[in-house]
Amino acid sequence: MIRHILLIEFKPDTSASHIDAVRQEFLSMPKRVEGVIAVEWGVGDSPEGRHDGYTHSVLMTFADEAARQRYLPHPEHDALKAVFRPVMARAIVFDYTLKSGEVGVS
Q1: Rounded to an integer, what distance in angstroms lies between the CA atom of residue 101 and that of residue 84?
Q2: Residue 105 pLDDT > 60
Q3: Mean pLDDT, to the nearest integer, of 2-22?
Q4: What CA–CA distance (Å, rounded) separates 21 from 43?
């Protein structure tokens, strides 16, 4: 499995309804692109104050490398970018491969 993490800072004038549209685009990806297993959306609420302006996050899980490679040029990903990019001030994208035995569960 591959995790795809985005930390997002929206432009200051972005409306709540546009942010919700971006959220809906992300959350619908598992139904629209084969191999996207799950998507989580979050709004930062850490009391540590170290968010550096990033306010939202997305955690996507891909079944494998083939799924990630299918997603990147996919028309549904392009549709998401068309909604997302006009309101994004900046984002960090960080992917990693989840290896067997590296998930801690208590």
Answers
A1: 34
A2: no
A3: 96
A4: 15
pTM: 0.88
Q: Scanning the structure block, which residue is given the tokens 């960090």?
A: 92
Beta bridge partners of 90: 9
Residue 54: partners with Cβ closer than 8 Å, 6 or more residues away: 7, 8, 9, 44, 92
What gap in Å lies between CA 100 and CA 98, rounded to an integer?
Answer: 7
For residue 80 the two structure tokens come to: 């998401």
In the beta sheet, which residues pair with residue 46?
none
d(Cα 53, Cα 89) in Å, to the nearest integer? 10
The CA distance from 42 to 9, in Å, is: 12
Cβ atoms of residues 23 and 32 within 8 Å = no
